């Protein structure tokens, strides 16, 4: 099937992906390899001509960002939206503040001088529905930086069917309205991170495991800080296809998941250390929740390794942030207290029509 290049009008066989790397059968839009090369050359030259003043927009604003990211201010802001999870709020507040201090220090210090400060990437552990994503979403709004969530369980290593790890950075790029500089100072949250834990012990597999250890290995450079190259959405991967480059060295990576069963690993370790813990006994309901909360806050890097997270990844996630389960009273407060509480939202909407909406406590607890 032959088609005309939209730019140079040359006729090319669209089945030849080398000669016609970009082709949309729905619109008929096509670009041949020669035009792709010329476009890339122009973009490279244009990028090089961008003034240093335009490139340092965020650097100029960094002082203001640091002022509003002082830990106590972050904690106060999150308190207006998120019920409970005080421990997690404090850990995240300090981690974010240190992240932007590191960024400022990196911009100001001379090359090959001073101390090298590593990134304060975060790993979050807590049951489903405890507020991990909500915490980060509101945090990004306070900072006014792009924020993107990627499901880690959908990622695969190169060569397997599925999404490559670069999709996490691509999602952030689009969350930043395709502004590379904004994306390079944003936050990426890899949800369901526990789903890519390495299979071990009884779950060990002799077959290739595209959704587990290989994905962790592929994420290493990205977490540490590297230039990630990817094509725009909807474009076929091809050596001649135009690419977008994003440097991840100043992107804050936060990974999170429920890590179901890790409390048993913690309990086993504590039992060996003669620490009085009743996990494994017949506990139910609130007692089970209290048992989980008591254990999860004592998680160590070694527990995460036993769960299946490779040591290299743990080394790039130095901040461990744990969240508690939410009991009925906490859920009731979530419905009614925050400034964006569902009950308050519906009351406001109906008030605009002159209707007063009232809930009894029994109705809310039902």
Describe this structure in words.
- The protein is an alpha/beta fold and 366 residues long.
- It folds into three domains: 1-49, no CATH class; 52-326, Rossmann fold (3-Layer(aba) Sandwich); 327-366.
- The chain is 44% helix and 11% strand.
- It has 16 helices and eleven strands.
- The chain has helices spanning 33-49, 52-55, 57-68, 71-79, 86-108, 132-143, 167-175, 180-183, 213-224, 262-272, 285-296, 301-307, 311-315, 328-336, 342-351, 361-365; strands at residues 2-4, 11-13, 22-23, 30-31, 122-125, 147-151, 187-191, 227-230, 244-247, 252-257, 319-322.
- The strands form four sheets. The chain has a five-stranded parallel β-sheet with strand order 6-7-10-5-11, sandwiched between helices. A two-stranded antiparallel sheet has the order 1-2.
- Helix 3 runs antiparallel to helix 5 and helix 4 crosses helix 5 (86-108).
- The longest helix has 23 residues, at 86-108.
Helix count? 16
Order of helices and strands: EEEEHHHHHEHEHHEHEEEHHHHEHHH
Mean pLDDT: 83
Alpha carbon gap, first and last residue: 63 Å
Keywords, separated by commas or semicolons:
366 residues; alpha/beta; 44% helix
Would you kindly provide a brief summary of this structure?
With 366 residues, the protein is of the alpha/beta class. 44% of the residues lie in helices and 11% in strands.
Question: Could you outline the blueprint of secondary structure elements for this entry?
Answer:
Layout: E1 2-4, E2 11-13, E3 22-23, E4 30-31, H1 33-49, H2 52-55, H3 57-68, H4 71-79, H5 86-108, E5 122-125, H6 132-143, E6 147-151, H7 167-175, H8 180-183, E7 187-191, H9 213-224, E8 227-230, E9 244-247, E10 252-257, H10 262-272, H11 285-296, H12 301-307, H13 311-315, E11 319-322, H14 328-336, H15 342-351, H16 361-365
Parallel strand pairs: 5-10, 5-11, 6-7, 7-10
Antiparallel strand pairs: 1-2, 3-4, 8-9
